[in-house]
Amino acid sequence: MTLSILYRGVLSGCNYDCPYCPFAKRKDTRATLATDAQQVARFVQFVKQQTNIEFKLFFTPWGEALIRRYYQQALVELSHCSNVQKIAIQTNLSCATGWLQKALKEKIALWCTYHPGQVSREAFLNKCSELDAMGVTYSVGIVGFKETIPEIETMRTLLPKERYLWVNALKKQADYYDNNERERLIAVDPYVPYNMVHHESEGKACRTGHTVISVDGEGNIYRCHFIKEKLGNIYQHDLNTILKPRACTNATCGCHIGYVHMDHLNLYEVYNGRELERVVAATRH
Ligand code: SF4
Ligand code: SF4
């Protein structure tokens, strides 16, 4: 069996101060970090022991995890597990990158978000170059505020052509973008229209709860990050008794980490095995 797990522990602190983020400059207590480290270590052990499962793993922390050594070590350790196909993580890419040398780099994938205002363009691009030099796969993304569009376009011209640059669209306000802004964003990210809508999802097939699950630090299983009905616990229950095809029970789904798993959108064809880290092959963008 192949299973994708989106892991989100208790860590929520971040070294950045993005005005749009509830976790900006939040500092985790030492006790929270100790709990998080212990829970991540337990999760790593669990993965190692499930030799009958092929894992695709994705850390989706609330805050910034890669500035913590225990996340770096977890990624390195998991990359060397024969039953782990891939280990991805969302990051602001502010961490040093030397630790990646110890990982089996072809299994690591980084979802890197560039936050203009928090880091200089040059510093971010330098980090990207370090990843390129090491042969680590990554995508780059930017939050698509109207006023950020020129910076998004500039970043597109400066990143290597083969590097997919995605945009997270603002969609709280209907018609936030005018036609021109929409077209400019599509010119950068041809798949941004998928991110500009809340997909109607209720009753529709979604792979979460079957081949994709969300797990918290205590091991509690949810089908996805957006539906808080507990399905069981990875440390207590047999996954075979839990995993099955299910229709979505939410009205809509508006985040890539959710809607990418809906059957009818056929986005697995676009991402071709890299749907977790949001990487699109150069020939498609
Ligand atoms: S880098 Fe991410 S987690 Fe940190 S403040 Fe910005 S949006 Fe929030
Ligand atoms: S469509 Fe979105 S909200 Fe619904 S089950 Fe899938 S990931 Fe969860």
TrEMBL record:
Q: Does the keyword Metal-binding apply?
A: yes
Q: Which Gene3D superfamilies match?
A: Aldolase class I
One GO MF term on file is: iron-sulfur cluster binding
Question: Among its keywords, does the record have Iron-sulfur?
Answer: yes
User: Membrane spanning segments where?
Assistant: none
Cofactor(s) for this protein? [4Fe-4S] cluster
Q: Enumerate the UniProt keywords alphabetically.
A: Iron, Iron-sulfur, Metal-binding, S-adenosyl-L-methionine
| Entry's family note | Belongs to the radical SAM superfamily. Anaerobic sulfatase-maturating enzyme family.
- NCBIfam families xref list: rSAM_STM4011
Could you identify this protein by its name?
Radical SAM protein
